[in-house]
Structures are given as C-alpha cells and as structure tokens.
Amino acid sequence: GNxxxxxxxxxxxxxxxxGFVHKVYDHFGIETxxxxxxxxxxxxxxAYDSMKAGDVVVYPGHVAIxxxxxxIVEAANPTAGIINTRSVLCKKILGIRRAx
Length: 100
Prior knowledge:
Blueprint (H helix, E strand, L loop, with lengths): L8 E2 L3 E2 L1 H11 L16 E2 L10 E4 L2 E7 L2 E7 L3 E7 L7 E4 L2
Antiparallel strand pairs: 1-2, 3-8, 4-5, 4-8, 5-6, 6-7
C-alpha cells in the first residue's frame, strides 16, 4: 500500500518497481541493478517451472519479486502502490532471475 513514485527510492514515501526490488535485495546484502530491464542480465536465469520465492520476474518495463503460490510482490503503479495481489502471469514474462 505504500506509494509508487516513478524513479523513487524510498519505501515509505515513494518507490518504483526496480527501486522496490533493489531495496528489498539490498536489505539482505545483495547487489542488484536499479533499472528493470537490467535485471535480464543479473543473477542466474531460472525456468518458469523452477521458480522459487525471492526470484526476480522481469516483464516489459516492469520487475517484481516472486512470492510463491503463483503470486508476486511489486511496486505496481501510482494508483495501487506496493501490492502482493497479482499473479506472476499478469504480464508477459521476459525472464526470471535468481541471485548468485
């Protein structure tokens, strides 16, 4: 429910999709890119049927974290903010990546 702000870097006052993923991974000491499409080259590729909670799902112009049970957590858009209610199949998946 916290706000989405394009280019934002603050989990409480506003963050965008790649900033959200970046901050979550940073909390655990894992370096990530800051821009959504850069995640296509980050970490290791994962097949759809091998996804685990914590994997990064890259969509056209968007990135999210797989939660398990077919759902993602994401900074979705300015209207919804940060949510965990969408299916991993909500958009075309360009790639799935796992931290090294």
